[in-house]
Amino acid sequence: MKNRIVVFYILFFFSTIFFGIEAINDNYRQSYDNRKILPIDTKVTPQQMKKDIDYLVNILKEVHPSTYSGFSDEQEKIIKNAYNKITQPMKVFDFYFILNEIICSIKDSHTHLVFPSLTNYIFYDFPIIWLNDGIYALDNIYELKKGDKILTINNKSSEEILKELRKIIPSENDFWIKQNARSILSSELYLGYLNLIDNGVIKLTIMRNNDIKTFNIKLQKYKGIHKQKSDWISYKIDISKNIGILKIKKCIYDEHYKEILFKFFKDVSLNNIKNIVVDLRYNLGGNSLVTDEFLKYIDIEKYKTYGAEIRFSKPVEKQRKIYGTGYKKYLPSIQLNEKIEDKSLLFKGKIYVLISGKTYSSGNWFAAVLGDNNIAMLVGEPTGNKPSHYGDILYFQTPEVGIPFTVSFKRFIRPDTSKNDEDALYPDITVFTTINDIINKRNPQLEKVIEIINSSQK
């Protein structure tokens, strides 16, 4: 039961996956008019849909950094195909996915459509996880046993499902899609759109103990389970292992963060800890200033920070009051480290950063700065978006159907520009979580770090 997805998480997912953690704020909620959004069952005319596609395409062409020299041949093909699909009236729900294919062609997880309200629709109790080697059941439910490997859903393999998900989840790599697919695959609407369900029934082919089984299951509505709230930042000092573990689930730059950071490094100093682990495996982002604040406690004189490329436009002027023309590039630069005044708290030991496919946006930025500057060793799985990624979003709404969407107008450049084209931040030591790790409640990435520490002390 502990692995079941709570309703809050599911709804939170549909916020973060389509517009990123940084966009969930009051400014965003005030940036579009809910009254203009047509219900998803409303039928709209070809003329209405054409106006909305025209508007979306023009905004992408005017604002997004990747379209400064125009759309690619593949993007032009997708746009042409979108126009070809709107010859007859259709429901807003179906039209949403036509627009979404255009958005997904940008390959920027910060540029996205906001899905119409899901309040009145069903989420199913379908506890699964997509690991590096496939999809697995997370619980004993229906005919499923925890640890069953799901080979097909309605005769579609995981690779076929992944191919379809690339068209509906704005992303920069497959790691992000896989991490978030279980929420998509619990939604009545999305399962229906992907043709993976028929009247609440799905057909599964699974592998259990090397035996292959096929059966139909009637999915039950997910009722939700209340989970005990945990702080988004916490730490633990393990004197016996000579290690301090700082877990940061959100990049929130506030007094609470500064207070916990101070307490952590004070305890590290008092207990003469020589190794610290920063756990960013579940960090979906926020404010990148948390990185600079953390580095104040590290005994380094300087480090290379992010650069940025800015696409200027009329919408940027209107929404951000940033004026200019064309495209401007600011290369990554050396930043002096403003170390804390209490020098007894400066850390001089080894730093390890744990990352995963859920490490995203400013969480990814945090890990990239430490990794690219050789301040820390990265351990775990590739992250959920590119280290050199698009971001800083503007807000728009289609004129007819009223679907809100965001578009990035910057590209952030990681400190090590030789790795600009990498589709994820790759760890120095790769440790994928397996289904056996989950069943046995193991922490393979942390175990690997402890193994490294122990071997270095021999």
UniProtKB/TrEMBL annotation:
- Boundaries of every Tail specific protease domain copy: 242-431
From the Swiss-Prot or TrEMBL record, give the protein name: Periplasmic protease
Alphabetical UniProt keywords: Hydrolase, Membrane, Protease, Transmembrane, Transmembrane helix
Per its UniProt record, what Pfam families does this chain match?
A: Peptidase_S41
SUPFAM superfamilies named in the record: ClpP/crotonase (SSF52096)
Q: Which domain of life is it from?
A: Bacteria
Tell me the organism: Marinitoga piezophila (strain DSM 14283 / JCM 11233 / KA3)
A single GO cellular-component term from the record reads:
outer membrane-bounded periplasmic space
GO MF annotation: an example: serine-type peptidase activity
Q: Does the keyword Cell membrane apply?
A: no
Give the matching InterPro entries.
ClpP/crotonase-like_dom_sf, Tail-specific_protease
The residue ranges crossing the membrane are 6-25
Q: What biological-process GO terms show up in the record?
A: proteolysis; signal transduction
